[in-house]
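User: hey, got a sec? need DinB family protein folded
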Amino acid sequence: MPSLVNAEIDERDALLNFLAAQRGGLRRAVLGLTEEQAASTPTVSSLSLTVLIKHAARCERHWIVENLMQRPVEEPTTAERWADEYRLVDGDTLAGWLAVYEQVAAETEKIVRALPSLEVDFALPAAPWFPPNSRRTARWTLMHLVEETARHAGHADIIRETLDGKVAFQLLAEEQGRPWGPTE
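Assistant: Yep! Here you go:
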């Protein structure tokens, strides 16, 4: 991880801050790129940086709003909608998905801060990849989102380095206005 999360007072703060740090890594991967660069697929994977941000935003909203809070956010998933999660469709732009991701992050923060406890639990929806009658807690959900977002931030690092050779530490330095390279 190219940035260190500050030591926190409680578990809720720590989980939210680790999630924010991973979101930051994913967003940094598009720093200074054009729409075309962010939409490109320079590896054998069909994933672009814009698609990774799109997926991360939708995934986080799904886990926090639909699963944890049990509130629908969009129409039920179909095979077509599932496929659209992993490709750019008409109207998808880097700027648009970055804005959505920012809204999702604020929504997650508000919801999680309002929970009486991280032990709040919920039933997972019926799906072939979940055991029947599965339940999860808010704590598990946040840990899962840190894991999921970190995985995709790593994918984004590879795609970005393939595009122009810039690595995560270099992008962090650029974002912070610091020089890149070894210090004496």
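Quick note: The radius of gyration is 17 Å. Let me know if you need anything else on DinB family protein.
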